[in-house]
Amino acid sequence: MKQLSATLLLALCILTACSAPSEPNEIEQILDKVEQGLGEDYEKQAVTRVYDFKYVNEQGNTLIMYLCITTYFAANPETVTGLDKAALSAVFDPESTPLQKEFTVSGHSAAIYQDDGHTYLCWTTSPEASGIMEYAPGTVTEEEALRIVRSVYEGPNPEE
């Protein structure tokens, strides 16, 4: 039941983050000033916002879900095919973290990266949306991690 509640909460957070109003905040105001300082020689390509959701179980194991939402300006979103490594790089460096496996989750490009202290299960559902589930190696099985991610897109297993 706890898994079902966490899954529903994650799905709600994803829907909320995707529909959140895009009012300028302090960071955007600072970036606007930077752009003014750059002049016309540079053009904003894309912005990726990261929303993180932290979970801890009874054993004290931490699982962090990241939702990466990319807004495109001059960059062409059609150039993103497969896993969006540019969006993932807002959380970790997929170029320097060892790739363990590439596959699909619910029809979406996915991969598992792992370094000494972190495992990252990553997926991209569109050029605008990618997800990352970060956990310590050995605290979550690959099957359990995939089940959690699938439940976001397919709904929870009724037997849970």
The DSSP helix count reads 4
Whole-number average pLDDT?
Answer: 83
Find the structural class using helix and strand composition.
Answer: alpha+beta
Give the overall shape.
globular
**Share of β-strand residues:** 25-35%
Extended strand count = 6
Spatial order of the strands forming the largest sheet: 1-2-6-5-4-3
What is the N-to-C succession of helices and strands? HHEEHEEEEH
Termini, distance in Å? 7 Å
Sheet with the most strands?
A: 6 strands, antiparallel
Summarize the structure in words.
This protein has 160 residues and is of the alpha+beta class. The chain contains four helices and six strands. Strands 1-2-6-5-4-3 form a six-stranded antiparallel beta sheet, covered by helices on one side. Strand 5 and strand 6 form a beta hairpin. Helix 1 packs across helix 4. The radius of gyration is 17 Å and the shape is globular.
